[in-house]
Amino acid sequence: MAFLADALSRVKPSATIAVSQKARDLKAKGRDVIGLGAGEPDFDTPDNIKKAAIDAINRGETKYTPVAGIPELRAAIVAKFKRENGLDYTPAQTIVGTGGKQILFNAFMATLNAGDEVIVPAPYWVSYPEMVALCGGTPVFVSTKQENNFKLTAEDLEKAITPKTKWFIFNSPSNPSGAAYSHDELKALTDVLVRHEHVWVLTDDMYEHLTYGDFKFVTPVEIEPKLYDRTLTMNGVSKAYAMTGWRIGYAAGPLPLIKAMDMIQGQQTSGACSIAQWAAVEALNGTQDFIPENKKIFEGRRDLVVSMLNQATGIVCPKPEGAFYVYPSCAGLIGKTAPSGKVIETDEDFVSELLETEGVAVVHGSAFGLGPNFRISYATSEELLEEACKRIQRFAAACK
Ligand SMILES: Cc1ncc(COP(=O)(O)O)c(C=O)c1O
């Protein structure tokens, strides 16, 4: 009898964590490495949020909380959905988890049976297919195209739906491409979904507040109220409020699903950290002034990176609407010989040669299900981004 569970054979470790670790290892050996792999803002959590956590500790808010979250946070979530998305939920229709990750995992755990299919547009956030597989479901990948700015078309969605489809995962702005769907682009997808009543929608709105220019964020139920009874709208404080380490995510959706997720969480982690929940109350209810300030900084970085990458030989970089990632193609370098003498056959070869030669850590596109591309996280200073892009230009020019 094998000791480890069969389920383990269905998952692989996170490629993004592996790249960050490789960059750390090289740095420890004294190499000058610029890490552009991490998916977290480089800003500190705003002071008003930190203070709310300190106040919570001093008030003794240090005990177990209700599994689905403290009433104050569930009320703040209800208010957030109404204020920002025009959506009506009751507190009972909300749930707080230990990061957005736990929300997603428990939604799959609560609903997937063997053979159930989950549509995952590619490129995708690395954890979606692994979570689906761990929970016994089957991820069904639908590739997008760079010429469509990595956005799924209605036709491709329609073709992917089968009688076994349980969920469609939607993520806009996207990790890893940064692509965000406009009202009309999303309406084309919701028109398809309305016709397939057995398909549920899991919308991951984690990057809602990180969109640039005059782009207007929209979420599926806002556009198509008919999807209200079969959509789980997930969000969190990690990215918009620079709170990745606090581990608070949340969702709202139909009561029976929320109750099932609550039951699973009750036998798992129980309520999220009490102090972090109080910090999240302040994040959602308090001043939002730093959001436009941070957006401006991210937008400047995006423009810098897109412009510099498009000046590199063999690299083509679309300009995404949101998040803090770009997802350029390195197709023009496939088949060329790197300065080390190695022929670049895949995007994985490209990123590993780039790291060895120039000390720039990025993540290969095949880890996100679509290549030959690579993902750059621009959540770091302009100075470092400029230096990293110069190195990428030099590396690309040296490939013959
Ligand atoms: C698209 C997407 N969804 C969800 C998450 C998870 O967020 P959290 O840190 O709240 O678990 C991430 C984090 O990288 C993400 O990129």
From TrEMBL:
Residues of the Aminotransferase class I/classII large domain: 32-392
**Biological process, per Gene Ontology:** amino acid metabolic process
Query: Which reaction(s) does the protein catalyse, per the Swiss-Prot or TrEMBL entry?
Result: L-aspartate + 2-oxoglutarate = oxaloacetate + L-glutamate
Q: What Pfam families does the annotation carry?
A: Aminotran_1_2 (PF00155)
Name the enzyme group at the top EC level.
transferase
Cross-referenced InterPro entries, in alphabetical order?
A: Aminotransferase_I/II_large (IPR004839), AspAT/PAT-like (IPR050596), NHTrfase_class1_PyrdxlP-BS (IPR004838), PyrdxlP-dep_Trfase (IPR015424), PyrdxlP-dep_Trfase_major (IPR015421), PyrdxlP-dep_Trfase_small (IPR015422)
Keywords, alphabetical: Aminotransferase, Pyridoxal phosphate, Transferase
Origin superkingdom: Bacteria
Give the similarity note. Answer: Belongs to the class-I pyridoxal-phosphate-dependent aminotransferase family.
What protein name applies here?
A: Aminotransferase
Recorded source organism is: Ectorhizobium quercum
